[in-house]
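Q: I'm building a small set of examples for a reading group on sequence design. Run inverse folding on the following structure and report the sequence directly after it, with nothing in between.
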């Protein structure tokens, strides 16, 4: 499916995007490698449109939804397993459209500096491995999956075909039974097909769907090792997933979890602060005691590589801050240059106006002359065609035949000249052999071919003179035909 059709399908099945610019980037369109994550078939982000604004150039139409699909990787993957690449492309594309619609779209304008920062952050994200331990469905939760199921239903109706759910999210991905969710959502996609996706999100999902979500996520937490419960991302996710009753022991568990979370958060924040301070000292060129380094790394759970990366980030940010501080000076210089450019453009426009004032009447006259000349030539041709003088017509036919023979003879003479020149001076010509292989070629051989060449050149000159005489004769005959 081409880009235009994919975007048109999106606007049809998702009214929320009908009046918002939608950008679809494909790896086959020379998409920047620095923005292409290894192993990913697609991705999106709230600021991907801004990140790609410079690459879009004149195609930029303002803030909107932006999606990248690695169609080259999809084609290779489908070729290996014998799958239809078009349907896999659609499944991947709708997967990313669901991400766009499951979050609040960021459409506020950004400055050039902010756009540059987005490019840097996106390139860094693409180049960095995912190392945060978190619940596997974060970013692909029940709300996102619900939107995807609605999009698939609407796309199937619009295209009159069936795009399998497995092409958008294989069963078991994110440790969720996606087929079970597709069953439990029931006929909701059909019943609510007249609503926008935002309106659907404001409606409670079917009860079996909600219960499956709670059941499957609880199972994941039940099998999570105790030592991993210290992960703040996971604890925050647990609190978000399980709004508990205020009765009995449930509140005690909730209070305990909240107390642990606050304590861990405070400790982590302090350790992170000490870690950042240590990195700042190193960035300043101050060598801290080894014991301090070891203690800080242990408390914050960081490694020496993390410390090195933090120092690099601090130095980079300081460089960015210095560049930002120079912005006023640069903006002033830009204004001065812009004024000069504007003045030059005004001068150019004035010069173009003067040029047009002079050349426009002349061009009109040239057009009139061309028309008059064409009319005269047409009249001449009509006079020649309508001439009935048999004697003049016979003379014209004879001159035409002689001219054709003369043209053919000239062509043969030119061919002979080229052949003799090649024989004399070509890569394996006689003169070359005479210079380097005197025993193979003699001077008489060279002189013989030179004589042939002179004869051919003389013959061509004679034929050219004959052609000029025939042309003059034809013009005289045509003059008589016109006056007849």
């Amino acid at each position: 499916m081409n880009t235009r059709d994919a975007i048109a399908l999106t606007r049809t099945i998702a009214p929320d995007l009908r009046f918002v610019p939608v950008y679809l980037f494909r790896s086959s369109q020379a998409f920047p490698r620095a923005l292409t994550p290894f192993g990913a078939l697609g991705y999106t982000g709230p600021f991907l449109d801004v990140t790609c604004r410079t690459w879009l150039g004149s195609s930029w139409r303002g803030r909107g939804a932006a999606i990248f699909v690695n169609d080259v990787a999809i084609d290779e993957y489908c070729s290996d397993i014998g799958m239809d690449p078009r349907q896999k492309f659609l499944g991947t594309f709708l997967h990313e459209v669901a991400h766009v619609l499951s979050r609040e779209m960021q459409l506020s304008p950004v400055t050039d500096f902010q756009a540059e920062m987005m490019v840097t952050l996106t390139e860094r994200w693409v180049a960095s491995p995912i190392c945060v331990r978190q619940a596997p469905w974060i970013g692909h939760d029940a709300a996102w999956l619900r939107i995807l199921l609605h999009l698939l239903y609407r796309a199937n109706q619009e295209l009159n075909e069936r795009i399998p759910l497995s092409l958008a999210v294989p069963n078991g991905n994110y440790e969720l039974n996606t087929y079970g969710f597709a069953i439990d959502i029931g006929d909701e996609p059909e019943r609510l097909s007249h609503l926008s996706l935002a309106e659907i999100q404001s409606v409670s999902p079917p009860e079996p769907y909600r219960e499956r979500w709670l059941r499957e996520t609880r199972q994941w937490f039940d099998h999570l090792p105790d030592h991993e419960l210290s992960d703040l991302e996971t604890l925050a996710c647990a609190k978000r997933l399980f709004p508990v009753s205020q009765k009995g022991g449930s509140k005690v568990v909730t209070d305990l979890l909240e107390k642990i979370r606050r304590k861990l958060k405070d400790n982590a924040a302090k350790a992170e602060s000490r870690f950042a301070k240590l990195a700042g000292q190193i960035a300043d060129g101050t060598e801290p005691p080894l014991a301090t380094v070891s203690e800080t790394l242990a408390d914050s759970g960081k490694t020496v590589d993390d410390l090195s990366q933090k120092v690099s980030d601090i130095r980079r940010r300081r460089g960015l801050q210095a560049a930002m501080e120079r912005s006023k000076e640069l903006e002033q210089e830009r204004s001065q240059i812009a004024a000069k450019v504007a003045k030059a453009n005004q001068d150019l426009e004035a010069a173009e106006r003067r040029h047009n004032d002079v050349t426009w009447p002349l061009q009109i006259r040239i057009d009139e002359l061309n028309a008059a000349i064409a009319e005269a030539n047409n009249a001449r041709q009509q006079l020649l065609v309508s001439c009935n003088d048999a004697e003049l017509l016979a003379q014209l036919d004879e001159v035409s035949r002689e001219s054709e023979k003369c043209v053919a003879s000239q062509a043969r003479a030119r061919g002979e000249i080229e052949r003799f020149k090649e024989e004399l001076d070509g890569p394996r010509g006689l003169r070359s052999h005479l210079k380097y292989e005197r025993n193979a070629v003699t001077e008489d051989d060279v002189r013989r071919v030179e004589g042939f060449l002179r004869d051919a050149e003389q013959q061509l000159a004679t034929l050219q003179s004959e052609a000029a005489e025939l042309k003059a004769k034809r013009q005289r005959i045509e003059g008589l035909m016109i006056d007849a």
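The mean pLDDT is 84.
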